[in-house]
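Internal tracking record. Fields below are filled automatically when a chain is submitted to the structure queue. Please do not edit lines marked as system-generated. If the sequence contains nonstandard residues, flag them in the REMARKS field before resubmitting.
Queue: standard
Priority: normal
Entity type: single polypeptide chain
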Amino acid sequence: MPGPRTYPDRTAIDAAVAAGTRRILYTSQQGAVPGNPYRPSDIHIATEAILADSGVAWTALRNGAYDPLDQVLGPWRRTGEIAQPEDGPVPYTDRADIAEATAVILAGDRSFDGPVTLTAPTAVTFDDLTTIASDLTGRTIKRIVLDDEQWVAEQITIGVPEQLARLMLTWYQAARAGYFAEADPLLTELLGREPRTATDRLAAHIAGQTLSETAH
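SYSTEM-GENERATED OUTPUT FOLLOWS
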């Protein structure tokens, strides 16, 4: 359901139109379509609808998930387990790649009308990431599928408010329903190179942690 953010978005869009803005660029999210159980999707859908009715050209960047992978996977290096709810394929995308592609869109002469999707070229699951992590570390990393309510309870135990935990759970539910499964080639086209893959990002994270541990 659209939340309070929708109304500031409308105010900002109305102000931009009144100021004579020729194009509005909006940061949306991949899978911003009706039926997506991930609750923030409703806000993005509502904002894109306001943009469509605004009378000016607009572009919505439906960015792929770009949170740090250690945040997504949990403390797997310490536990040897990726213990999260049931998931689905997601083209986990590098934040820096999205920023670079956004700069290309802003600086270029090509118009992108309506929603455009910016994702890594390949969608992967936690099972895939478990295999990747095992190969990179030389350890046997296990994938543990947690029951939704068990996961929520564990989040509450470590201090996450229940409302936030249940909001986060809707992301896993959306992933397992396939709302983030489609990878798009546009990011590769805009960058003029292959975007960083989940393997690249996980390897960099492991290397960074190893250097930090060595320094201490």
